[in-house]
Design brief:
By secondary structure, this protein is mainly beta. It contains two helices and ten strands; from the N terminus they run αβββββαβββββ.
C-alpha cells in the first residue's frame, strides 16, 4: 500500500513543480525596431539620424537572464537624417561607404544582468570592414504576451552605447571639428519569442 502511494506522491510533485525555463529564440519585430544616432554637427547641434532597415535575433533564457547568442544587421544605405544631400554624403566613402560596405553588423558576446530591469551587453561591431568591441547599456522594459495583433510573448528593450567612429577609420570632419567623433547609438525594439 505504501509503495502505491509513492509514485502518486512523486507524480503530484512533478506536476506541481514549475517547469525550468529554457533558452528561446527571439526575433526582432521589424515594425517595432528603431536605431537612432546622435552626433555633434559643427558644434551647433547634436544631429539626429536613423537607420530604417535592420534585422536581428537572439537566444535568451528569460528566467536565468542568460544570453546565448545574438546578432543584428543594419543596411548602411538605409540611413536618413531627413536631408537628401546630407544623406547622400553620409552614405559616401567619407562616412559609411554604403556601396562597398552595405552591412553594419553587431554580434553579441556576453550579457551581464544587472538585476530585473537590465544589464550590460558586450559584443563586436563591424563597420567599414573593421571589427571592434562595443558595450551597450540594456534596459528590459516589459516581458509579457502582447495584448493584441500577434499576441506572442514579447520583450520590449531599450539600449544605448557611445562609440568613437574614428576607431573604425571614419575620420572625415574629426580633425577640424566639423563633425564629432563620438556617436551615441540608441536602440528601441520589441522582440517576439519564436
Amino acid at each position: 500500500m505504501g509503495f502505491t502511494r509513492f509514485p502518486a506522491t512523486l507524480l503530484a510533485l512533478l506536476v506541481s513543480a514549475p517547469l525550468a525555463a529554457a533558452p528561446a529564440t527571439y526575433r526582432i519585430d521589424p515594425e517595432h525596431f528603431f536605431i537612432a544616432f546622435l552626433i555633434e554637427h559643427v558644434g551647433y547641434e547634436r544631429l539626429i539620424g536613423q537607420f530604417t532597415q535592420a534585422s536581428g535575433e537572439f537566444v535568451y533564457d528569460e528566467q536565468a537572464k542568460q544570453l546565448q547568442s545574438g546578432s543584428v544587421e543594419v543596411r548602411a544605405a538605409s540611413v536618413t537624417t531627413h536631408h537628401d544631400g546630407r544623406d547622400a554624403h553620409v552614405r559616401s566613402g567619407d562616412f559609411l561607404d554604403a556601396g562597398k560596405q552595405p552591412l553594419i553588423r553587431f554580434v553579441a558576446r556576453e550579457y551581464r544582468s544587472g538585476g530585473k530591469s537590465g544589464g550590460i551587453l558586450r559584443g563586436d561591431l563591424t563597420l567599414l570592414g573593421q571589427t571592434h568591441p562595443v558595450e551597450l547599456k540594456v534596459r528590459l522594459n516589459k516581458a509579457a504576451q502582447y495584448p493584441f495583433g500577434h499576441r506572442k510573448h514579447t520583450l520590449g528593450i531599450s539600449a544605448s552605447a557611445k562609440i568613437q567612429r574614428s576607431r573604425w577609420g571614419m575620420t572625415y570632419g574629426v580633425a577640424n571639428g566639423m563633425v564629432g567623433d563620438e556617436v551615441e547609438l540608441l536602440f528601441e525594439f520589441e522582440a517576439l519569442r519564436q
